[in-house]
Amino acid sequence: MNLTLKVWRQAHANDTGSIETYPANDIPEEASFLEMLDIVNERIIEDGGDPIHFDHDCREGICGMCSLTINGVPHTKDSGITTCQVHMRKFREGDTIWVEPFRARAFPIVKDLMTDRSAFDRIIAAGGYISVRTGSAPDANSIPISKDDANDAFDAAACIGCGACVAACKNASAMLFVGAKANHLNKLPQGEPEKDKRVLGMVRQMDAEGFGNCTNQYECEGVCPKEISADVIAKLNRDYAAAATREAVE
Amino acid sequence: MINKSQMNSLGQSLLNFWRSSIGKKLIVAVTGIILVGFLLAHMAGNLLVFQGREPMNDYAYFLHHFLHGAGIWLFRLVLLGAFVLHIVTTICLVRENRAAREERYACEATVKASGSSKIMIWSGLTVLGFVIFHIFHFTVRVDPDLAAMKDPLDPSRHDVYGMVIAGFQNPLVVLFYIIAVTLLCSHLRHGVASLFQTLGFRSEKTRVAIGYLGIAIAIILWLGFLSIPSLVTFGLLEDKGAAIEHSSHSTASLLKC
């Protein structure tokens, strides 16, 4: 396949950056998107240039590290997959492909397509955990949990923290991520005792990091590689209202 | 007695609520419910125009004299408060949202966002402009001809029925009304479903119903509000009482001659 890439290049965090054009010729259809970038990078290096920097790790769709916005959509317009699961057969001969970083003030660009997503780590540190003793794993069914609650918690726990929800949102809102992480624990008996503290802490940290507000367009839901429903945002809203009320009056 | 530290603690909680993204969105949702409730009641009241002059003017008289005239001011105060809070909070949210995404994508695309959701701030600001015009048109009545209209059945009271029909004789007013109501309904198509999400009522069970409710309220209000200027424009809703009154005046003038 012969393609044209329009890639965001930015030398460092304080550089203004710009879109640069690269030919991507003789790309095999069976190559993944990241492998295509590897091929282009090899040619850039052979020509003595600076290769395109981008985040990647497992290349299996489970680590949440890859983070490209392809033709305006984080990961890709195909639902339920990450950037590393995009294959070149999805494109047509002669296509021009726009490749940009995940854009949000809370995700500053480190270089080219690499972004600093440590804001998510700080949100988790603000409440995305349970305070229990560590030690040997308890028996599997020692704490009864209803099937519905287990399913809901498991669906929310599928979040890999890639940040596509933030990148897709026109407001760079992290509500899907925070909703998933909070609901995952809030739904379970182990997480329930710290529910209010968790919700208030995570939402306040989310706001402090400079993420925007959810305007219910559900772009986050549409691009989430784990197809997490925006219903978790409704639950977070409800839990926050209850927690804030209890905090004010108790 | 509440001591100073308790007041400070409560004040801090309220301040935290206002500062939080979800707190502001909850304010927009609750004020939105008040405004949608008003719109539904206002539309139902407007539709009395199809019942004729007497029911319409009786209704207007009731509104202005409820609780010895205090009722309407109480109602206006609540409505104004909700309206101002809705707009101010939304503008704060929009400013924060624009700051959160400083750099736009060179290639923009969406996968789920509805057309209505993309123009919320613009549809909202158009409605704000229209509301100001509408208040000057039908409530303050800056047009002396409209302000002077008296009910032929009871000249001591204002002729709201005649004023509505006379007010829609101007095609520019009708055009602005149609554009504003259409944008208002676009605003509500997203806004009504959105408020249920913000208040936490959206779930797998309710998701579809909430979506349809937003569409249904938008369609009902669009048909209800636009039925009146449309029928006036096409001559299907006329002020027959005024015509009779006018002809009886003419007859009396002729007799005097």
Question: Describe it for me?
Answer:
The complex is a heterodimer of chains A (250) and B (257). Chain A folds into two domains: 3-111, Beta-grasp domain (Ubiquitin-like (UB roll)); 118-249, Fumarate Reductase Iron-sulfur Protein, Chain B, domain 2. With 250 residues, chain A is α+β, with helices and mostly antiparallel strands. The longest helix of chain A is centred in the last third of the chain and has 19 residues, at 231-249. Chain A is 35% helix and 12% strand. Chain A has eight helices and seven strands. In chain A, a hairpin with a 2-residue loop joins strand 6 and strand 7 (114-115). Chain A is elongated. Chain B is mainly α and 257 residues long. Chain B has one domain: 3 helical TM bundles of succinate and fumarate reductases (Up-down Bundle). Chain B has helices spanning 4-19, 21-46, 53-65, 70-100, 115-118, 120-139, 144-147, 160-167, 171-198, 207-233, 240-256, and strands at residues 150-151, 154-158. A two-stranded antiparallel ribbon of chain B has the order 1-2. In chain B, strand 1 (150-151) and strand 2 (154-158) form a beta hairpin. Residues 243-257 of chain B have low confidence and may be disordered.
Summary keywords:
heterodimer; A: 250 residues; alpha+beta; Ubiquitin-like (UB roll); Fumarate Reductase Iron-sulfur Protein, Chain B, domain 2; 12% strand; B: 257 residues; mainly alpha; 3 helical TM bundles of succinate and fumarate reductases; two-stranded antiparallel sheet; disordered C terminus
By DSSP, the count of extended strands of chain A is: 7
Which chain pair shows the most residues in contact?
A: A-B, 54 and 48 residues
Largest sheet of chain A: 5 strands, mixed
Average pLDDT figure of chain B: 88
What's the multimeric state?
heterodimer
How many structural domains in the coordinates of chain A?
2
User: How much beta of chain B, percentage-wise?
Assistant: under 5%
Q: Count the helices of chain B. How many?
A: 11
Report low-confidence residues of chain A grouped into runs of 5 or more.
none
Strand order of the largest sheet of chain B: 1-2
Helix segment count of chain A?
Answer: 8
CATH class of the largest domain in chain A: Mainly Alpha
Tell me the number of structural domains of chain B.
1
Q: What is the ordering of alpha helices and beta strands of chain A?
A: EEHEEEEEHHHHHHH
Could you tell me the CATH topology label of chain B: 3 helical TM bundles of succinate and fumarate reductases
CATH architecture of the largest domain in chain A: Orthogonal Bundle
Low-confidence stretches of chain B: 243-257
Query: Could you say which structural class the secondary elements and strand pairing of chain B correspond to?
Result: mainly alpha
Radius of gyration computed on alpha carbons of chain A: 20 Å
Structure class of chain A: alpha+beta
